[in-house]
Amino acid sequence: MNWTEIVVTVPASDIETAGNIAQMTVPYGIYIEDYSTLEEEVLEIANIDLIDEELLQKDRSHGKIHIYISPEQNPSEAVSYIKERLEAQNIRYEIDMGSCDVESCLESWKKYFAPINVGEKILIRPVWRDDYDAKGRIVLNLEPGLAFGTGTHETTRLCLEALEKHIKGGEKMLDVGCGSGILSVAGLLLGAKSAVGIDIDEMAVKASKENAELNNVQNRYTGTRGNLADKADGKYDIITANIVADAIITLSVDIEKLMDENTVYIMSGIIDVRLDDVLSSLPESISVVEQYEEKGWYCLVAKKQA
Question: Are 143 and 106 contacting, i.e. CB atoms less than 8 angstroms apart?
Answer without folding.
Answer: no
